[in-house]
Amino acid sequence: MISSGRATFAMRIGFSAVAALLILAGASLNATGHGGGDLVVVAVAGLLAVAAGAAVPEWRIAGPTAAGALLVALLSVGFHLTDQRLPVQLGGLLLLALAGVTGITAYRSFSDALRSRLDDVHDLNVQLEQKQRAFMAATSDLDGADQPGDAGALTALIAQESGATFACHYLISPDGTRFMPQPPGIGLGRLHPQPVPAGGEGPGPLLAAIYGGKDFVGVDKSGLTELFNYVPDELNVESLLAVPMLIGQHVGGFILLGNRPGGFNDDDRRLAMTLTRRAGT
After folding, report:
1. What is the mean pLDDT of residues 215-242?
2. 103 and 44 fall within a common domain
3. Domain that holds residue 223
4. What local confidence, expressed as pLDDT, does residue 148 receive?
5. pLDDT tens column, 38-58
6. Which of 15-19, 135-139, 200-204, 253-257 has the largest mean confidence?
7. 176 lies in the same domain as 271
8. For strand 196-197 and strand 250-258, is the pairing parallel, antiparallel, or unpaired?
9. Closest CA to 171 of 237, 255, 228, 261
10. Are the CB atoms for 216 and 223 separated by under 8 Å?
């Protein structure tokens, strides 16, 4: 894509350079053999020729303008069709018309590219504004929740803001040895969470990340086998996100989110981590 963009840019520069050369050559031929006051007349003819070329394909404008350039050229030689300067001058006007065509092509190409870039920037700004509004709405909604005890409301809020299709949360047991699943969960269907150790040796990648106070991102259902006693074969899992719920320096539980369309991105991770940390303060 980068090389294609460079080639397009080089082509636009090439058109601009060709247009400049055509103007120089055409102006030189157009003025050949003329001097004094005639130069003003041939200059008008040249300008009309460039305008006629730039007006293509609007023939209602280009046609009369081209005819005007021809008439002014004939005026510069006193309407003597046998004047030896006339063929050279007409050749110059033709080059100037071609310069107009080439120049307007380059101009339109640059304008379209600039307009496209501005549209991309505008779309990006709209997306950033939407993400900012979503983040502010999420953090504002959290202000009205009971913190940190209302973990179910927090889970529902993060699932809603991230677009996850299923979610659940675990809290540390009173004796601190296990993470206990908390009902009811969101969209779990045939999935049944089971208690999992709150420490120990040989944990899977998901629990290892939680033990370390870090988030976990997965792209299949392998992480579910650490938390659920039965994972149906037909269950299609495209994305997972597990976020620890830190209370001070300790992991007081975690939230599991799954199957966000398109997968969980960095914005989802930051939002989930921010909300869980804020709830734990």
Report:
1. 90
2. yes
3. 148-279
4. 42
5. 788 888 888 888 888 888 878
6. 253-257
7. yes
8. unpaired
9. 255
10. yes
- Partner residues linked to 253 by β-bridges: 171, 245
Task: Please tell me whether residues 108 and 155 are part of one structural domain.
Answer: no
> In angstroms, rounded to a whole number, what is the distance separating the alpha carbons of residues 208 and 68?
82
- Let me know how long the chain is: 281
Q: Is residue 104 part of a domain?
A: yes
CB-based contacts of 276, cutoff 8 Å, min separation 6? 154, 158, 243, 244, 245, 246, 255
Q: What is the pLDDT of residues 193-224, one digit of tens each?
A: 999 998 877 788 999 999 999 999 999 888 99
